[in-house]
Amino acid sequence: MLTKWGKALDKEHILPDYPRPQFRRSNCEILNGVWEYAISANTLQTPPERFEGNILVPFSPESELSGVNRTLKEKDCLWYRRQIEAPLAFDANTEDLILHFGAVDQFAEVRLNGVTLAHHAGGYLPFSVVLSEVWVNGIANELIVRVRDETDTACWSRGKQSSKPGGIWYTPQSGIWQTVWLERAPKRRIESVVITPLFDQSAVEFTVWTNCGGAGILQLLGNETVFLSGTPLRLPMEHFSPWSPEEPNLYEFTMTFERDVVESYFAMRKFSVEQDEQGILRLFLNNKPYFHNGVLDQGYWPDGLYTPPSDEAMVQDIQLMKELGFNTLRKHIKIEPLRWYYHCDRLGMLVWQDMVNGGGIYGKAAISLPLIFGNSHPDSDYAYFAREEVRGREAYQRELHETVSLLYNCPCIAMWVPFNEGWGQFDANKAVDAIRALDGTRTIDHASGWHDQKGGDVKSLHVYYKPYRFSLDASGRAVVLSEFGGYSQHIPEHSFSQKEFGYKRFSSSDALTEAFETLYAREVISAKEKGLSAAIYTQLSDVEQETNGFITYDREVVKMDKTRICAVNAQLSDAPKPQGDTAQALEETAASEQETSEPQAQM
What we know:
The chain is an alpha/beta fold. The protein is 19% helix and 29% strand. The protein has three domains: 4-186, Jelly Rolls; 190-266, Sandwich (Immunoglobulin-like); 271-596, Glycosidases (TIM Barrel). A hairpin with a 2-residue loop joins β21 (281-285) and β22 (288-289). α2 runs parallel beside α3 (338-347) and α6 (390-407) packs parallel to α7. It is globular and about 70 Å long.
């Protein structure tokens, strides 16, 4: 099942844009495209003599766009091979060649010219390999990547991948699924930067790290300031323009260290939980109450699975939700390519970031029955939550640290969500402590849905099969409806399967839209007045058998009437109302769009 971007895919230019928008150097070579592949028994330690054919990287072999359409089993080993040459003007005496992987699921070994240079565990986070030690100039160097993936047969993080997909569990995917790229960088270089906006102090703090200590120059707003590696540098931001979904103001800056130059950006914004004028705890943005009106976003594509077919595809999902009047996306049990967060930063979209779940085989008592009965269980009971294996818990803790560190600088990230619906949950309050030690600038939903351990910043509820009725949290936290709705309309000609999964079914766009209006009028808008701080509707798009999206899985049909959805969402907005000429211009634009809109918009 192809999207329009998959149909138009240029095999020579797959996801060609610079992969790290907040850490940009002037040169890189994108290695996406045609590689060789083979699948063997996972006991094989040397590459097979014959590779089976070609695969389009970075699409996993299970995806249609890869050209392979084969599922990697836990007893299989996936091999990649490609010849690479040094970029023009590469100087081996003063520079390194660095190979970057956006994500490889699940265990990767990287070899160059027969020498193993790196092992990496974990299918959702980036890693890099310095090639210089075994690089040979003037020839094509042989790059081999060996991959194993145990999916849900072991305790590692797997997200919503399942060896038996159906309902809310989806097709497994494996191997390289984010961009691979080669970068030329000075041997003495900048390694990372940590950016902390200090909203109340009208300042911003940078900590720049090099790989060798020393001092460099940071350029911001026309001024140059010396930084010392590893030492916080605080700079004033007088009369700054705050970032918000309505006005996503970004500030560019440049770091220079000897021969290395890196460009980046940041924003001035503040997330907190505070009391409103009535003394009710709410989510605040920039010191004002701000209702997070959002949509659950699984990040799956019918042709690329985890991998979006293009930047334009990512942007359309984000822009459509903004056009419908939403200001938040809950990125559900997945970590996206960094360009996705960049688009949320520049377009203005809050993001709740879920951690990726793992553990053993989940029991219904832990993950399903609480939806009906609302019961919670102490998450120190590792067996109850299928978290007995120490190595799985240790891997989760490591990946929690890496995820927060990876996305810390992204202005759009508003909420961390370490656990969802008891899927491999354990020691949630310790996870809160770990996150706070890394990041004191965001709020935390420690146990989304159920198995509340009375921690974090919010009381988080999932409500599907019964009406939602608001009540304040006795533990003294803000209250959020972090999943609800899930209304389904199955459109066969735009569906992945003839099966239909949703929490309530409707046969037409009009009936679905009317049900949405009624749901929000009865359960959300009135609750907001009483103190509800957020509502996350399920979900952005259909995914495989799940047909409860605003849009179909192929992103071709918007199921509900856009004008009516906007009218509902306008009642939840805490954004300042436009005045004068701006208000008139918006009204004229809305009227023009209404004249040309169709009841069931085609995209």
